[in-house]
Amino acid sequence: KCSTAVKANLATWLDSVRMINDSIDIFDATIINIGIEFTALCPPDVNKNAVFNKAKDEIFEKLNDYRPEIGESFNLTEVFKILKDEEEVLDVTEITVSSKSSASHTDFMYNIDSNMSAQRRILHIPKNCIWELKFKNDITGTIL
């Protein structure tokens, strides 16, 4: 949440550059904490636990390096790309997204299923919300 002082300073500056008839309202965005679950295939001779941990680290690092805009959709294809770039991963069979809510997450529960695209590749986010992958433990999966 943005502090009242920051909002007041922003409103003061915006007031100096706005048109007379413009109206400006400043709101905090609602955070949607997401979790990711994946299933991937790898060769039988590799350490599946090591592959899983490496894939989990890569997903978390790359998605947290990217800062989404408020209202920007979450593309599951990005997770597919991250996993497919892993040397030991032969194929990615499934990726699902869930809404996380707990004492350490936001208390806002978002209905993932009703906001997924028909192809289940894009999670649509409302214009007043922003998605966040908060913890590395919010990523689970299976390596076959």
Protein model, in words:
The protein is of the alpha/beta class. 28% of the residues lie in helices and 24% in strands. The chain is built from 3 helices and 6 strands, in the order αβαβαββββ. Strands 1, 3, 5 and 6 form a 4-stranded mixed β-sheet that branches. It starts with a helix and ends with a strand. The mean pLDDT is 91.
- Radius of gyration (CA) equals 19 Å
The number of strands is 6
Helix content: 25-40%
Q: Averaged pLDDT, please?
A: 91
Let me know the largest β-sheet.
Answer: 4 strands, mixed
Give the amount of beta strand, in percent: 15-25%
Structural class, by secondary structure, is: alpha/beta
Question: Which blocks of ≥5 consecutive residues have pLDDT under 50?
Answer: none
Number of helices: 3
Cα distance spanning the termini = 41 Å
Task: Map the helices and strands.
Blueprint: H1 4-17, E1 30-41, H2 48-65, E2 74-75, H3 76-84, E3 91-99, E4 122-123, E5 129-132, E6 139-143
Parallel strand pairs: 1-5, 1-6
Antiparallel strand pairs: 1-3, 2-4
Notable characteristics:
alpha/beta; four-stranded mixed β-sheet; 24% strand
